[in-house]
Amino acid sequence: MSHSAKIQTAELDWELIDAIEVPISKQFGDVYFSKDNGLLETRHVFLNGNDLTERLSELEDFQYFCVGETGFGTGLNILTLWQLWQQVRPDNHSHLHAISVEKFPLSKADLIRTLNVWPELKPLAEQLIQQYPLPIAGCHRLSFPEQRFSIDLWLGDAQDIFPSIPKTQAVNAWFLDGFAPSCNPDMWQENVLNHIVRLSDYGTTFASFSVAGVLKRGLKQHGVHISRPRGFGHKREMLKAIWSDPSQTLTDPADAAEIKVQSERAPIASSSRPRQIAIIGAGIAGLSCAWAFAQRGHQVTIYEQDEPLSGASGNPLALLNPKLCPIEQAHEHLMTLSWQHALNFYSRFKAFRSIQVQQMALKNADELLGLAEQYPEAVLSVHDQQNATPETDYPSLTLHQAGAVSPQQLRDEILQHPNIQCIKAKISRLKCTDKQTELWQEQQLIATADDVIVCCAKQSAELFENYPPLKPIRGQVSWVENREQALALDQAYSYGGYCMQLDAAQLILGASFYPNRDDVDVLAEDHVHNYELIHSVFPEYAQQLPTVEHWQGRASVRAQSLDYFPLVGKIQNDGQIFTFAGLGSKGFLFAPLCSEVLAALVLGELCPVPQNLLDKLNPQRFQKKVKAKKPYYSG
């Protein structure tokens, strides 16, 4: 897949027309919106062209409606859609989701300047700007749960992106927008249109300001019926289309796009009631999954045999410290995508604190430090070691956008959600029936659920046959009084191990790493290991710490898959039983994005990762090597 190494932001000229600043793309030599009135044009072409006032107002409880767009541009179409959604959405748990692609995103400063043109959109524009992503290739999910609205903004070339989007649900309506075909022919190529249709279904509608031949031919060859009603302003016509089921007889195919019969439209993902979701295990995987479903209005019960966070997720502090990849891999690199999503996710909680991490270049220094030139300016910089505290001889890379999470505080905030309850129970068996899954504790049936997510790390295997192997890795963190030489609270240091302030008086550092061990006693030898790690990089600082006899600690066992990717999805295709495990030492980093992927798979929504990455997360990826037996839960 040919992705450009780095996302280029749009270069703009500005033209003053009737006291309105209209942005013009230098790359394509075309305006971003109508010089007549961009907001009215969007309503006429895209909202009315897809009959969205009627369709959105008729959504039933828990229905999911998806709008796709071929060029995000200034965000005007999406904001106008959002405004309509606020005006007509039913008072239920229906959800509106938009996906949009952009090769040359506006810088945040240009986006703010552009959206100032539309005062009536300002409350929504401010929310969009707050979550507007960095110009890094890949899918960026922006969530507005109180509005029951979300956006997947895919940054990159449409020729690469549309083939990579998994069809986990059909798009119901399309805004075929972008610069005119004469200015930007790549957007309107057959390859792109083929995948737009692939992501659609019978009944999907399409609207565009363009009636260019390449667009009409590209849609017609798939059986999409096109009409050309009057365009906006001085434009004589626009395109309005519907992909009709060929088994439906139409008296006049030219009028097919005007069909307003609900049954003719793309199937809408639907559940007329809240789903009963059972989650087994209350580590960060289980908690983040619970939050994803609860935020959508579903009822979640977590079953935990001990106490929440009793396993590897229960350390006093979690550091979000990704190892970023070369920029040309960012669009499908799990750690890079998860890092961006995690910062957006955790910043909603009081348990989060924003920090920056000094990543020490212990080996391959040029490779690590060279990342600073690849990423957007605000992300990375090479750190000047002069007058650094603590002192070290190693160069380092500063990751400016990182964070720390207090697991216990996060747990308390998540469990306060009115749709989440946590029950102490050890589930020993799952049994599929025709409609639901039974949860058994020894010989007692204790609950039934529509969907079950098994999030028990290495113990997940107890509920399945042929569960993919997970390797145990013992790890111990240490904390120690360092009031006299406390580090800055907004700094962390990464050097094979890591250290940062647990609070104003204590330093937390770690962590030991012992594969194929599952003992959890706190050991003096692991404190020594953690001391030697920090001493190897910050010798003077380490020597002033209290001796290890005065250190405290916590040991736990992480579960790691054989290929280092988490397990996210179904072990077997039958039934509604899923798993989420194998996060290794990156649980807090991976969990928020993987939970959104899992919610999409369970509920039938569009996924926020490319197909290639979704395949790498699929638990069935290991089954090619082992002939699958009947799962344990089937009996």
Largest sheet: 10 strands, mixed
Query: What is the subunit organization of this protein?
Result: single chain
Low-confidence residue ranges:
251-264, 626-635
Proportion of residues in β-strands: 25-35%
State the separation between the terminal residues, measured CA to CA: 44 Å
What is the number of helical segments per DSSP (H or I, 4+ residues)? 17
Count of DSSP E strands? 30
Describe the structure.
- With 635 residues, this protein is of the alpha/beta class.
- It starts with 11 loop residues before the first strand and ends in an 18-residue tail after the last helix.
- Strands 14, 15, 16, 17, 23, 24, 25, 26, 27 and 28 form a 10-stranded mixed sheet that branches. The chain has an 8-stranded mixed sheet with strand order 6-7-5-4-8-9-11-10, with helices on both faces. The chain has a 6-stranded mixed sheet with strand order 18-13-12-22-30-29, covered by helices on one side.
Question: What are the defining features of this structure?
Answer:
single chain; 635 residues; alpha/beta; 10-stranded mixed beta sheet; 8-stranded mixed beta sheet; 25% helix; globular; disordered C terminus
Summarize the structure.
Helices cover 25% and strands 26% of the residues.
Task: Outline the secondary-structure elements.
Elements: E1 12-17, E2 20-25, E3 30-31, H1 38-47, H2 52-57, E4 64-69, H3 76-88, E5 95-102, H4 108-115, H5 122-131, E6 138-144, E7 149-155, H6 158-164, E8 173-175, H7 190-198, E9 205-208, H8 213-220, E10 224-227, E11 239-243, E12 276-280, H9 284-295, E13 299-304, E14 318-320, H10 334-346, E15 352-360, H11 365-369, H12 371-374, E16 380-383, E17 396-405, H13 407-415, E18 420-424, E19 429-432, E20 437-441, E21 444-449, E22 451-454, E23 470-481, E24 491-494, E25 498-501, E26 506-510, E27 514-515, H14 524-537, H15 539-543, E28 552-561, E29 567-570, E30 577-581, H16 587-603, H17 611-617
Parallel strand pairs: 4-5, 4-8, 5-7, 8-9, 12-13, 12-22, 13-18, 15-24, 22-30
Antiparallel strand pairs: 1-2, 2-3, 6-7, 9-11, 10-11, 14-17, 15-17, 16-17, 19-20, 20-21, 23-26, 23-27, 23-28, 24-25, 25-26, 29-30
